[in-house]
Task: structure prediction
Amino acid sequence: MRPPFIVGETTIQAGQRKTVDLAIAQLYSRTPMGMPVHVIHGKKEGPTLFVSAAIHGDEINGVEIIRRLLGLKLLNAIHGTLIAIPIVNIYGFINCSRYLPDRRDLNRSFPGNHKGSLASHLARVFMEEVVSKSTHGIDLHSGSNHRINLPQIRVSLDCPETERLAKAFGAPVIINSRLRDSSLREAVVDMGIPMLLYEGGEALRFNEPAIRVGLKGVLAVMREIGMLKNRRPRKKAPIKPVIVTSTSWIRASKSGILQHIAQTGNSVAKGDIVAYIVDPFGDDEKEKIISPLNGMVIGNLNLPLVHKGDALFHIASIDNQETLDGLSESLQDGDFIR
Result:
């Protein structure tokens, strides 16, 4: 029998699953607030994987991914331990806000400090009670500030193990992304733990394709690291993600109303018109927004009201036309969500 797993003051025996509410800090109304952590401690030895969501409280697609994950019966036979944290930033979640009450971004507060801000304290609890007990991690995010993201994995590809897991996840695009200072990913990587950051959909909206890709990806990683049995080989070969090493944001050249031509998931060529910006009173000519490179739109602003300098389109640089055509076809056919 495996030794028990301990989170906070709760002991979970092998073969058990429990939800533990880690106390953080009560509201000024004396309402207690905590971080719910669901632990499934398998009977058999294996890795310990954490899957977290809503570090930004308004990014709720990950919450739904974890809810569906925890409802699967196949988790009753896992090897190792799954730590699922559907709502890390409970304060932001109940207020439909990206931030904590102190207006800090939790994902810029790691590894945290018990004597620091509320964000710093919450980050430190997460590192001590979750990350330090894990061998692998997946953090689930969505686009922010009225932006939608194509399902994508962001990692540092200088770690072979991380690259292996990124490919196993099976999102359409893998972006070789630098580590952001004081982010969860930086803190986890500094501890030598392989971690994937998944982006898909937009804040405060459920996006079914992004949820399905995310759930499928988490299960694929669990199989890849030996937590779940491998599925029977499919007749059709799995779709290979496209690895991207360079991306670029197209920004508004003037203020006005944005009229989309391209959308997330569309391929674009250098020189293509991806949008127009028009004056709300119709006084000026349309301002053309031009793609500066060949590739695919992996994120775009949904809000039609823009100021000069606003980020409008996130373009992944893909010069190989055959690769781009294959990715576009796979997205249109829905291969990534089957």
Summary: The first strand starts at residue 5 and ends at 7. The CA atoms of residues 28 and 271 lie 54 Å apart. Helices lie at 61-70, 90-94, 118-129, 160-169, 184-190, 208-224, 321-333.
